[in-house]
Amino acid sequence: MESKNRVLIVGSGGREHAFAWKISQSQKVEKIFVAPGNAGTEGEIKTTNIDISPSDIDSLIRFSKNENINLVVVGPEDPLVNGITDQFNIEGINCFGPSAEAAKLEGSKGYSKMFMQKYGIPTADYSTFDNVVEAKDYAKDKTYPLVIKADGLAAGKGVVIVENYASASKNIDEFLDQKKFGEAGNTIVIEEFLTGQEVSFIVMVNGEEILPLATSQDHKTIGEGDKGLNTGGMGAYSPVPFVNEKLNEKILDSVIKPTVKGLLSEGIHFRGFLYAGLMIDENLEAKVLEYNCRFGDPETQPIMMRMESDLYDLIDSSFKGSLDKFPIEWSSKVALGVMMSSRGYPGEYETGFEISGLDNLNNDILKVFHSGTKKEKNKIMTNGGRVLCVSALGQNIQESRDLAYSAVSKVNWKGCYFRKDIGFRVIR
Ligand code: AMP
Ligand code: GLY
Q1: CA distance linking residue 188 with residue 129, whole number of Å
Q2: What is the C-alpha to C-alpha distance for residues 351 and 343, in angstroms, rounded to an integer?
Q3: What is the average per-residue pLDDT within 397-406?
Q4: pLDDT, tens digit, for every residue of 48-58?
Q5: Cα 207 to averaged position of ligand 2 atoms, centre (Å)
Q6: How far is the CA of 275 from the centre of ligand 2 (A)?
Q7: For the purposes of burial, counting CB atoms within 10 Å of the CB of 195, is it exposed (0-12), middle (13-18) or buried (19 or more)?
Q8: Dihedral sign for Cα atoms in the order 50, 82, 78, 309
Q9: How many A from CA of 193 to the centre of ligand 1?
Q10: Ligand 1 atom 16: the closest Cα is on which residue?
Q11: pTM for the full model?
């Protein structure tokens, strides 16, 4: 049995915990490091946290050479946009995640809109601006609501939906003049508001090879009924029942294949997870809201619970050129994860509270994935806005939701918050 493989996972969220949990189950993997990880990754077998920031690429490379790492899996977008994969490639170490050039699909919304327009990929009508007067002029005679987005990375928070011109004008000032999102908002995209249901359509890509993963639906806003400010995601489930085989094929044909073809036409080799955030309207037509160049968080958590294949093998196949032939297998059960967050998130919040009730929760059908947590003197403390994603695997979505919320009710800390309606679009 080959069990000599040594993996480095870059990131500290629930997505990275789910990767570590899943890869640790591979017979082919001897050791996993997570940089910097969290209290959850630290608790997985074969897994050790290392105190290196995802932005410190030089130290990650030095560490990987010293520890004979043969696969790096990058969770978050920032290091990808900053070229982590390009640098590992120079060192000859396999790094799963797109190059900086390919990651621009997520790193610049202006670029991704231009790309979609060029390659005929359905998306909302839009314009880009770096000038306040021109942006306001454009917004004046539009129909509302209208969507305003920071061009660059803003952790899922750089998007506002405005109901009238007064609000548009105020937001244009905040983005472009007051630099609410810093450099990321030097340019803004103003686009048409789309209605329908959102689906996270995530595939693995290696050049022209495509392997679709299970579908999922995130819950982006902080409030129940999809109200309030956008967050990184407050809960997700998989699969999405209305994405049947026909719709699946349609999304592959109208969005994923043209995207991959477009990348190749631009001379860009994309290797990694490619996530199309879609809006599906009542006629089952899909439009792209955004691309991400990585797996979703919290989508990863329920999707990993359903994945029956060996994740190490799966990622490794992309380096062997056999990704699209990989016999991926999924549980037919439904997985659902509820995100528990700090009071105040996605605005300001406090951390450093002890989390109670975590003992003996994990089993074959229930897993608490950690996001913003850290261990201090054997206590598990909150250490971020999104703290835990309590995920369950049930025969149907009702069962997985009941299992997840029953576990959520046992966990507590000062100021803990969660949405009570994860899955509401399919559970009436
Ligand atoms: P994005 O980062 O571009 O995916 O935007 C974050 C969230 O804002 C999306 O998941 C949607 O919920 C919402 N959103 C973004 N663009 C639009 C749009 N054109 N119409 C309606 N909602 C949108
Ligand atoms: N959950 C949305 C994202 O990862 O972008």
Answers
A1: 5
A2: 9
A3: 98
A4: 999 999 999 99
A5: 23
A6: 9
A7: exposed
A8: negative
A9: 8
A10: 289
A11: 0.95
